[in-house]
Amino acid sequence: EENRAALEESYRKRSGVVKEQQGQMKTFSKKKKEKQVVLNTLKKDKKKFTGEIQANRKKLQKLQVKIEELIKAEQIAIEKEKERQRLEAERRRKAGEVPVKDTSEADLAKISGDFDKAIGLLPWPVENGVVVRKFGKVRDPDLHIVTTNNGIDISVPSGAPVRAVSGGKIAQIAYLPTYGNIVIIRHAKSYLTVYANLAKVNVAKNDVGAGREVIGLSGPMPEGGSLVHFEIWKGKVKQDPQKWLKK
User: Fold this and answer.
1) DSSP 3-state assignment of 65?
2) Strand, helix or coil at 66?
3) Cβ(230)–Cβ(179) under 8 Å?
4) Which sign does the torsion angle of CA 48, 49, 50, 51 carry?
5) 12, 70, 112, 128: most buried by Cβ count inside 10 Å?
């Protein structure tokens, strides 16, 4: 009888341990399923984010191709203007007439800041903006996607005023469905500034304006929010805009 009672007690203890282990196994199995659900969600999110980044990269590439075309067109126009002035000066020299000075560059110099001496001094094209994509090649550490940016992307509230960082002449105005209106301003010493993703443009081609003049308003982005794409070129060479803007 004592042996039977001892066996029953031992059985009850073992039974309790087994039930506890079974409970732990169920909890573990449940947690494992939950983790799998989270992992599957993360994989889906990663695919979604990768797709969004790839789409944004394609939009940025289209923008940069368009801007480079506009920059090239402006450089050709500048070279033609210089050649015309050279031929006119040559004609006057042969005719014994008084040579005429190049007033276009002199006029630009009067309203444009000296970019060669303005590194770290130029005002920002928008107020209270945050740089969300820097100049040059940027590699996403998680998705391993490399994106090249010819300028910087500045996040701002939708409809924010966009101002010229320096006085100059409106050289080019264009439009892209994916990045709104594009404005290129010509400054002295072959410098050009580019402002893209403008919802509204307040200037016209060949207008001459002073620095800090509002040239347009920032446009919305399909994924939400608003940003302004800003570039600085010296001739045909793209520059890092953040080196010129005030810290």
Assistant:
1) helix
2) helix
3) no
4) positive
5) 112
Show the CA angle centred on residue 168, arms to residues 165 and 172, nearest 5°: 100
C-alpha R_g of the chain: 32
100-130 residue pLDDT tens: 666 577 788 888 989 999 999 999 999 999 9
For the entire predicted model, the pTM comes to 0.75
The model's pLDDT over 12-30, given as tens digits with 9 standing for 90+, comes to: 778 777 777 777 778 777 8
Tokens of residue 18, six digits: 């087994």
Residue holding tokens 């126009």? Answer: 77
Residue type, 36: Q
**Cα 228 from Cα 84, distance rounded (Å):** 36
Q: Report which residue type is found at 101.
A: K
Residues 247, 245: Cα–Cα separation, whole Å:
6
CA atoms within 13 A on the CB side of 57: 14
Give CA separation, 77 vs 15, 24, 43, 109, 122, in Å. Answer: 91, 78, 51, 18, 26
Name residue 44's amino acid. K
